[in-house]
Specification:
10 strands, 10-stranded mixed beta sheet, single chain, 2 helices, mainly beta
Length: 138
C-alpha cells in the first residue's frame, strides 16, 4: 500500500494571492503526513512561494524517507527562515533561493538564516534547476 498524505485545505484568501506565505498557512492549517510523505510541493510555471518560517519535515518510510521541500516545473521558492528535516529536491527549471549566510559543497548546504535559525540540508537538483544563495547579514 502506498503512503498517502492527509488532506490539506488552504483558505481561499490565501489561494487568491500570488505569494504563498507559509506563516499565514501555518496559522490556518496543520500539515500532517504519513510515512514517506513530502512536506511541501511547489509546482508549476508562475508558482511563487515565500517561506518566512515553519517546520517542514519529510515523513519516515520503510523504503525511503520523504523530502522537506519539492520544487519543480519552473516554480520558485524564497526561503528566509525555517526548519527543514529531510532532503530538498528541485528539478525541471525550478528555483530555490536561500537568504542568510550559507556554504554549498556539492549538494550539501549549511549555514544560518537571518533570524539565527540553522540550515543543514542536502539539495538534489535535476534538469536545469537553480539553487541560489543570497548573502544577508543579521
Amino acid at each position: 500500500m502506498r503512503p498517502v498524505a492527509s488532506e490539506v485545505s488552504v483558505p481561499n484568501e490565501i489561494l487568491k494571492q500570488n505569494v504563498f506565505n507559509c506563516s499565514q498557512v501555518r496559522k490556518s492549517i496543520l500539515f500532517t503526513f504519513l510515512s514517506s510523505g513530502n512536506a511541501l510541493h511547489i509546482n508549476g510555471f508562475g508558482t511563487y512561494a515565500i517561506i518566512n518560517g515553519g517546520n517542514f519535515l519529510g515523513g519516515t518510510g520503510t523504503i525511503y524517507d520523504g523530502i522537506s521541500l519539492y520544487v519543480l516545473n519552473s516554480a520558485e521558492v524564497h526561503i528566509r527562515a525555517g526548519t527543514f528535516g529531510g532532503e530538498m529536491k528541485v528539478e525541471r527549471r525550478g528555483r530555490i533561493v536561500f537568504y542568510g549566510c550559507f556554504r554549498k559543497e556539492n549538494t550539501h548546504i549549511t549555514g544560518v538564516f537571518e533570524d539565527g535559525s540553522e540550515l543543514d540540508v542536502i539539495v538534489r537538483s535535476y534538469y536545469g534547476d537553480k539553487v541560489v544563495l543570497v548573502p544577508v547579514s543579521g
